[in-house]
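Hi V.,

You were right to ask for the full record rather than a summary. Here it is.
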Amino acid sequence: MSKRDHMDTAVQEPPLDYSFRSIHVIQDMVNEEPRTGLRPLKHSKSGKSVTQSLWLNNNVLNDLKDFNQVVSKLLVHPENLAWIDLSFNDLTSIDPVLTTFFNLSVLYLHGNSIQHLGEVSKLAVLPRLRSLTLHGNPIEEEKGYSMCCVHCLGSPRLTSAG
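Predicted structure:
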């Protein structure tokens, strides 16, 4: 199977879902069982998940220390992550590790504690980012919040921001 075929297949796979697991640090994912959905997760022979979606919403994360290392242990092709849900955590900034996932098209960061509007500009390097949520963060109170997000990320490619 070519890398492109793998990407097309993985997009249709259910997410690796660690939502509502009271995860405090990223390393906890290694010992935590992901939630099961209607469709079972597919795994490689090595036991790693075959998916492009990672859900970590509704936990208590305040940083993404060791994110790359842990995701590499859990996913067959972590570089193909297209959807990361980090909503409803305790993140105060946009960790630069997120900018290393060049296939990222959906990033949910709503309901966190991100305070500085300048954090959004870090995501400008993500060429496929189409949907970004930031509502429910302190930056939402800054004047021009929505327009700044669209300007920082390039309005033609961003189809959903808020």
